[in-house]
Amino acid sequence: MMVAPITLTSLSLATLFVAILPVVLYRRLRGPFAFDWRATIAGIATFALFATVIERALNDYVLHGNAVTANWLANPVVFVVYGALAAGVCEEVGRYIVMRMLARRKAGAPAAPDSTGLAYGIGHGGAEAWLVGVFVQLQWLVFAVLANRGELDDHLANLTMDAVLRVHLILASLSPQLALVFAVERASAFVFQLGFSVLMWRGVRAGWWGILPVAIVVHALVDAPAAMYQARIVPLVAVDGAYALVAAVVAFVLFRLCRPLARGARTRT
């Protein structure tokens, strides 16, 4: 099989866009908000530990390692509820713990109120963009190039026939439209992570005990459409369309909230 050049180009551009988005945003906002790079590193580490290690281990056990829970989750409604809550609980508990640590360290620091939240969010969202988006798409780009050279099956020789067939089916489904969907989906997820982080940071700085359950619920509500797509309840186009719309609203709210704070940070530095 062959992957069309226009598809390869579209996927490459979409992957590049997702890869540079957190880097460019960090560089643009680092000066105006007086970012502390350690908050960004903390965001990267938190996502890596709580989302890719703890949440993945939990999902493997609940979905595959425990026959009782696996049977329950065969129900689409139960699967959606679990999928949304698992992501919300794991990520927001990690975000809360780390931001409590950052808040103690930042107590009394003359920085813009949302500076640490944004810096952390770029790290957390950037880690998600790379680990969930960029690295996965790079793999498919490599597979596509190998397929066009006629070398793919040789590189998949250690896989089962079902796995090889699945790779070919996915490659056959690649298209410029799918590249656009990928870019919109990952950009929306990045914006949501910024919003979650600013929300959590404001709650932690205010000393509000209820910020953790609120953040879990908000995160779960945002993840629910994706879980519904995985359960084949709603189509992908509807999910990504809704995400793009909500992400645009979140980006606008963040811009309105943070722009005057950036001015204040500049006058203090």
Structure description:
- The chain is mainly α and 269 residues long.
- It has one domain (19-130, 176-268).
- Helix content is 85%, strand content 0%.
Spell out the key features of this protein:
0% strand, globular, 269 residues, mainly alpha
DSSP, total strands: 0
In total, how many domains does the architecture comprise? 1
The percent range for strand residues is: under 5%
Radius of gyration: 20 Å
Furnish the topology, listing elements before pairings.
Blueprint lengths: L4 H26 L6 H29 L1 H6 L3 H31 L8 H35 L2 H4 L5 H13 L2 H31 L4 H20 L5 H33 L1
Helix pairs in contact: 1-5, 1-8, 2-4, 2-5, 4-8, 4-9, 5-8, 8-9, 8-10
Quick take:
This protein has one domain. Helix content is 85%, strand content 0%. The N and C termini lie far apart (58 Å).
